[in-house]
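For the sake of transparency, this paper describes our internal protein records without simplification. Because each token names a local backbone shape, the row as a whole describes the fold. One such record is reproduced below, unchanged from the form in which we store it.
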Amino acid sequence: MERLIAKDLLSIKAVFFSPDKPFTWASGIKSPVYCDNRLILTAPAVRNDVESALAEQVKKLYPECDVLMGTSTAGIAHAAIVGHMLGMPMGYVRSGAKDHGRQNQIEGRLEPGQKVVVIEDLISTAGSAIEVVNVLREAGAEVLGIISIFTYGMKKGLDRLAAANVENHSLTNFDVIAEVAAEEGYIKPEDIERLIAFRNNPSDESWIGGNK
């Protein structure tokens, strides 16, 4: 599954490597990888693989799940599709409460005590995903875990998830995608070491310019 999803994401450039011409994240960090999982929604064959894998993971890992909750905004569509496939209720958590109407932050019906799985598209530092988990817990839900499409496996994210006592299961990860990218010719095999160096310490830019 990890390699299939990796090939899918690379094929539609949902994950795109450019180690010699790095991207600049909003934080200012230079990155050799760009991830836009929204592209999955406009690629039906890849979308089918991803949603089927997400649904299978929910059934396998959390058969007791009552409700799926998507993260706003990227996780909403995936939670809706998977909820439809499994015949399960779904909702989503806003990044902040509405300033009008009922001022909801959780959209969709959620009863205290219900068991929830969070559907997320991407885990990097895990900050936004943990905020969603906290909102759900404050509403009385039992959060079983997060199922995401892709994770960088950054130490900061892993530490945050551990501190929040929440587990994440991703369909694929940075190491697998880097390996598949080299095999498929998207990057040079010698670039893998540079990519892993970035992942292990994003603030250290010594990987830039190597192996040219």
Q: What stands out?
A: The beta strands are 15-17, 23-24, 30-31, 33-35, 67-71, 90-93, 106-107, 115-123, 142-151, 168-173. The mean pLDDT is 93.
